[in-house]
C-alpha cells in the first residue's frame, strides 16, 4: 500500500506541477520520500509538527494547490485534530490527508502509535471523504481519484504489506462496494486490510 502511494504520487507530480506534498518527518515510512527525491521543490517536511503541517496544507490548498499531506493515522486525527477540523475540513480545503500505520499494525512502535479511533474521528469531520483501500491496486486508484476530485480526503493505509486482491481490470468506484466472493449463507463486510482477513475467514467457514 505505502509503496503504491509513493509511486502514484510521483506519477501525479510528473503530470501536474500543481501537486505538492507535505510530511511530518516520516517520509521514509509514508513513502512520500519518493516524491521528495523526484520533485524536491514541491516537497515540504514540517518535522514533528503535524498541527503546523495541516495548517500550511490548508493555506496551500486555498491558494490553488492540490495538496497531499501525510503522517501516521494517530497523529493526524489526535495531535492535529484542531487544525484538521477547524481549518482544513470546515473550509473544504483541497487537501488529501493520506495516513499510514493505521490500526494495530504498528506493534513495534508501541501504543502511542496505534490508532483505534482514527476512523471514528475522521467520519465525524465535515466535508471529508474517508477511504480505506484494501490493497496496492486500490490504493493507486484511490490516490488518483483524490487528486482529480476537489475537497478534503482522508485515505487510511497500513504499515504491513497486504496481499493483492484486485487485478489491472479493477476500477474503484467511490461509495460502491466490491463483491469479491459470492455465497448464500452469510454476508461479510470489510474495509482496508481486513478485506483479506475476511476472505480467509470465508475459507475457514466454508471448510
Q: What is the secondary structure topology, with strand pairs?
A:
Blueprint lengths: L1 H14 L3 E5 L3 H4 L2 H6 L4 E3 L4 H13 L3 E7 H7 L1 H9 L5 E6 L17 H7 L4 E3 L4 H13 L4 E4 L37 H13 L1
Parallel strand pairs: 1-2, 1-3, 3-4, 4-6, 5-6
Helix pairs in contact: 1-8, 4-6
Write a structural description.
- The protein has 207 residues and is an alpha/beta fold.
- It has a single domain, classed as 3-Layer(aba) Sandwich (Rossmann fold).
- The protein is 42% helix and 14% strand.
- It has nine helices and six strands.
- The protein has a six-stranded parallel β-sheet with strand order 2-1-3-4-6-5, sandwiched between helices.
- Helix 1 (2-15) packs parallel to helix 8 and helix 4 packs parallel to helix 6 (81-89).
Outline:
The protein is α/β, with parallel strands linked by helices.
Going by CATH, the homologous superfamily would be Thiamin diphosphate (ThDP)-binding fold, Pyr/PP domains
Helix count?
Answer: 9
Q: In sequence order, what are the helices and strands, one letter per element?
A: HEHHEHEHHEHEHEH
Give average pLDDT, whole number: 94
Q: Tell me the CATH architecture.
A: 3-Layer(aba) Sandwich
Q: Largest sheet at a glance? A: 6 strands, parallel
CATH topology: Rossmann fold
Supply the CATH class: Alpha Beta
**Termini distance?**
30 Å
If you compute it from the alpha carbons, what radius of gyration comes out, rounded to the nearest whole angstrom? 17 Å
Number of strands: 6
How many domains in all?
Answer: 1
Strand content: 5-15%
Fraction of helical residues: 40-55%
> Which blocks of ≥5 consecutive residues have pLDDT under 50?
none
Spatially, the strands of the biggest sheet line up as 2-1-3-4-6-5
Taken from the alpha-carbon principal axes, the silhouette is globular
- Structural class based on helices, strands and sheet pairing: alpha/beta
Pfam families: Transket_pyr (PF02779)
Protein name: Transketolase family protein
Cofactor: thiamine diphosphate
InterPro entries: PDH/Transketolase, THDP-binding, Transketo_C/PFOR_II, Transketolase-like_Pyr-bd
